[in-house]
Amino acid sequence: MKIVEVRHPLVQHKLGLMRRADNSTKTFRELAGEVAALLTYEATADLECEDAEVEGWAGPVRVRRIKGRKITLVPILRAGLGMLPGVLELIPAAKVGVVGIRRDESTLEAMAYYENLVGDMADRTALILDPMLATGGTLVATVDMLKKAGCTRIKGLFLVAAPEGLRALGARHPDVEVYVASIDERLNELGYILPGLGDAGDKIFGTRA
Ligand SMILES: O=P(O)(O)OC[C@H]1O[C@H](OP(=O)(O)OP(=O)(O)O)[C@H](O)[C@@H]1O
Ligand SMILES: O=c1cc[nH]c(=O)[nH]1
Ligand SMILES: [Mg+2]
């Protein structure tokens, strides 16, 4: 399975700021968007390009442009919405399909409650957006959904992942590529990532667990 831990200084610095316990909702949200944009830069590095010609200021000029499969963004409700603005800054024309999955905090089982994907999933590369990859249950359920809809090229963008979640994904969907700002140490007994960020959804939306 392809796993890219993005070591770029801007990503590491911004993630370090996100780990502070005293961040305001505004600060956490802004940083989530900024790191998401930087992850997008990495995750799109292999997009296919082609030559084209445009009329420039001094006559015709050869340029490069992206060709091939289009992208659909798939934020997982609710925390994935916190990454969406940053990703859309780099891919403003992307279509967005939304998936609602909530983790039952006592059983840690992923429960799907909403699905609204774009129609032509088979022709698109899906970029799943979720700040946290913990046990992997939410991600596996999302990939199940996307594949059922015909999607064959799937990448996931995460701020923090636990080794346990990466193993679970590798066992079920080894073809999915992962781009993550940090692979952290482990899950605690409640299924939270250590050192992690705490509850990313609550921090992005200003709610409290
Ligand atoms: O890998 P897992 O163990 O499945 O956990 C990860 C999921 O848990 C969090 O969402 P949560 O269920 O808290 O929903 P929220 O986005 O509404 O906060 C997080 O944003 C992931 O979606
Ligand atoms: O550490 C974790 C695990 C799941 N969901 C979160 O928001 N944080
Ligand atoms: Mg949450």
TrEMBL record:
SUPFAM superfamilies: PRTase-like (SSF53271). Keywords: Allosteric enzyme, Glycosyltransferase, GTP-binding, Magnesium, Nucleotide-binding, Transferase. One of its GO terms (molecular function) is uracil phosphoribosyltransferase activity. InterPro entries: PRTase-like (IPR029057), PRTase_dom (IPR000836), Upp_B (IPR034332), UPRT (IPR005765), UPRTase/APRTase (IPR050054). Its cofactor is Mg(2+). This is Uracil phosphoribosyltransferase. It comes from the Bacteria. 5-phospho-alpha-D-ribose 1-diphosphate binds at R78, R103, D130, P131, M132, L133, A134, T135, G136, G137, T138, D199. Allosterically activated by GTP. It catalyses: UMP + diphosphate = 5-phospho-alpha-D-ribose 1-diphosphate + uracil.
